[in-house]
């Protein structure tokens, strides 16, 4: 009898343990906060309730087959939304550029020398795919030149590129040094650098359809990956020693090169990864930021430092500084804009210290800001944030206006002063899946009162700012055309009229 009772007792204990473990597992998997409420079951990634082709987990309106996306979160589907009705459904884009790899930097363009016209005939972008990619044979790393008329390749090499050994990692700057005395003269130079430390200054002739070769190329081997470049053009002479080319690297080196292609100064900032350089409008000074949140200014003539380093009060990357006539602007990862006086690298007294934008929802900005865009007259500036907000500020640091893109602004906004007098802002949006084909972005067009004009949805992610030029023969000095906007993404290059 005792043996039977013992067996029964053991069975009961085992049952209690099993039940306890089962209940515990159920609670962990299905009960939220131990208050008896259960989590929603895992969504089924195959169900499309309304049959509109968008499965429920990616459909903002799973029971409405006429709507599936609500990018501005106003609970109005994009197909019905009045604001979204202004999108361009089919912007004119160059389909033959998709195989040249992602466009990760800003582009440059060339103006045809002409007494009366400011027409652009050619634009340039950094492209190519890594060695080992099946398509890299046809799309090697390098600089590509395309026609503004139809996007066809302008250089007749088999790849259509000025090929480089590694990826182009700097911005691309172009300048026609020949037009200073003679509007019909062409001495167009392009400046850019690569991940492998190669810096190039190449000449692209007006009537040349060949990739620059031999005497058309000036190259330098720098210490570290080239981060950014800038050009200063002496207005008094055709390409001469007074012209300046500057490059920075991720190893803390800043190189000053004269118009005769001699490295005249090398400035080293120990243990620093540098931003792009910015040359003052008079060509006397250059400013650069670091990943450690410091800003430096140097005299170009002798390489001496201007005052002390300026600490932006952050431990993360500064944006690229922007030097104007007498001020320097920079921002950081903490959502603060700084304005310094050029001659001493000290805070502009009109600003007192850095400003933190406040958007129209009365929220303080705290996200990473873009490089500022300052109007030529210096009276207003524009800046975007990874929070999605776009801001306009005046020369006293007052936020005048703000606009929410509901995305992530990662490229410098642009004010088109030449043609349309409109603002262009780009924003990236989180992809729905891990598939890069889901990545998308938008370009927004506003007027200077921040009135919304239109928006265009683009495939891929935008990292470089838009380029705007005149590509129509009827656009003349004093009476320009409407302007053509060109934007490169991680998958495509798009082109459309600025005034839509």
Protein described:
This protein has 500 residues and is mainly beta. The chain has a domain at 2-86. It is built from one helix and 33 strands. The protein has one helix spanning 2-30; strands spanning 31-32, 37-38, 108-111, 120-127, 142-147, 161-163, 173-176, 188-193, 198-203, 217-221, 226-232, 244-249, 253-258, 263-268, 278-279, 285-289, 294-299, 310-311, 322-323, 327-331, 337-341, 346-347, 373-374, 380-384, 389-394, 399-404, 414-415, 423-429, 440-446, 452-459, 467-469, 484-488, 493-497. The strands form nine sheets. It has a four-stranded antiparallel sheet with strand order 3-4-5-6, with no helix packed on it. A four-stranded antiparallel sheet has the order 7-8-9-10, with no helix packed on it. The longest helix is centred in the N-terminal third of the chain and has 29 residues, at 2-30. The model is unreliable at 82-99 and 474-480 (pLDDT under 50).
Structural class category: mainly beta
Shape: globular
> Which range best describes the helical content: under 10%, 10-25%, 25-40%, 40-55%, 55-70% or over 70%?
under 10%
Count of strand segments: 33
Number of helices: 1
Strand order, main sheet: write it out. 3-4-5-6
How many strands, what sense, and barrel or not for the largest sheet? Answer: 4 strands, antiparallel
Distance between the termini: 95 Å
**Cα radius of gyration in angstroms:** 28 Å
Q: pLDDT below 50 for ≥5 consecutive residues: which ranges? A: 82-99, 474-480
The proportion of residues in beta strands is 25-35%
